[in-house]
Design brief:
This protein is of the alpha/beta class. The chain contains four helices and eight strands.
Amino acid sequence: MLKEVHIDIGGGRSADYFVSMASVDKQGTYVVLDPEEFRCPYTTMYPNLRLVRWGANEKGTWELPFADSSIFEANINFIYDCVGWSGCDRRKAYDSIIKSLKRVLKPDGVIYVREPQCTIESLAERFKEHDFQVTEPFLLEKGVSETSIFMRRLSKDFLNWGYSPMLFEARLG
């Protein structure tokens, strides 16, 4: 039986979320993609964990390095503000990721999008524009990652900033 492939886009230098997933689910393959250099010593401990340094190509698009219909689950973690760092237009860059996800996602696959409250609605609409079915975004009440914990604290410290972490699911339509 083929292993299910899960990807974490913007998983961070320590890849903490997928390290914990790879340690529990030995049958799945967990791939973390991030433009930063990794500081994660766990790939020798978990052979089902892969770290890929990934970024925009020369055209400014973010093409995922996977075959068509090969990904069971994708996680996008707080990357909307980061994709513009490569010098390209943030909207164009994020749309290129959505198009690439549409290509690599299996027909029964799912995408979990985690972004701040201030941007989640517009990103859900972008997924709809690319023919994805999306759930209603909801607040993340528990610490899913260091980033979500940080953003929750930031929102509490600076009321009404809209940085509370939220989540929606997207599936092929």
